[in-house]
Amino acid sequence: MRRSLLARLLLTPFLFLAVTAMGEERTAAPDADELIELLGLEGHVEGGYFRRTYEAQNTPRISTDRGERFTMTSIYYLLTEGGPIGHFHRNRADIVHYFHLGDPISYYLIHPDGRLETVTMGPDPRLGHKLQLTVAGGIWKASRLTSGGSHRYGLISEAVSPGFDYADMTLGETAGLLAQFPQHRAIIAQLSHPEAP
């Protein structure tokens, strides 16, 4: 009886560690390469990876000065350690961003009046991370994955209204942005394309 109790007491820590390890193995987050494959992502002209996941096909399209658009579209968007920057660009439509997985992503927003706003999306509101971010049309936007994170990627979704069309997006070239916003030289030099691809 005593021997049996002693054996159980001695084995309990090992059983706990084994069960914990099994649970961690089952619940470990996928890495960036797995996400790219599982979600069917491909490279984006802004940087990072994406896939369009939704088009509002059951509602009438919206007429704009650049043609008809879906009322809304949505994408997955992924930044990785190997591709950590979403370069400066501007959209005509409003975009709502939703954080999903991974390490925090910092957003740099240059408003039409020249004001620079920095917002961090991430998993922990206690640290000031935003789970949701709305960027109005006409604002220059860039994003950068936080370096040194444990996941080495950050995954978000974007909902765009009216729906996204490449004709409504302008990539920010370094020279043009510096001419317009010389006060933000450092961040523009880091997060813009020398020239549009």
Can you tell me the CATH topology? Answer: Jelly Rolls
Number of strands: 13
Q: What is the first-to-last residue Cα distance?
A: 76 Å
Order of helices and strands: HHEEEEEEEEEEEEEHH
CATH homologous superfamily heading: Jelly Rolls
Quote the beta fraction: 35-45%
The largest beta-sheet arranges its strands as 1-2-5-12-7-10
Mind telling me the CATH class?
A: Mainly Beta
* CATH-derived architecture: Sandwich
Overall mean pLDDT score?
89
Number of domains: 1
Helical segment tally? 4
Helical percent range? 10-25%
Determine Rg (CA atoms, Å): 22 Å
Residue windows where pLDDT falls under 50 for at least 5 positions: 9-26
Can you give me a brief rundown of this structure?
The chain is an alpha+beta fold. It contains four helices and 13 strands.
Walkthrough of the structure:
The protein has 197 residues and is of the alpha+beta class. The chain has a single domain (32-191), classed as Jelly Rolls, CATH 2.60.120. The protein contains four helices and 13 strands. The protein has helices at residues 2-27, 32-39, 174-180, 185-191; strands at residues 42-43, 49-55, 62-64, 67-69, 73-80, 85-91, 94-102, 105-110, 116-121, 132-135, 140-145, 153-161, 169-171. Strands 1-2-5-12-7-10 form a six-stranded antiparallel sheet, covered by helices on one side. It starts with a helix and ends in a 6-residue tail after the last helix.
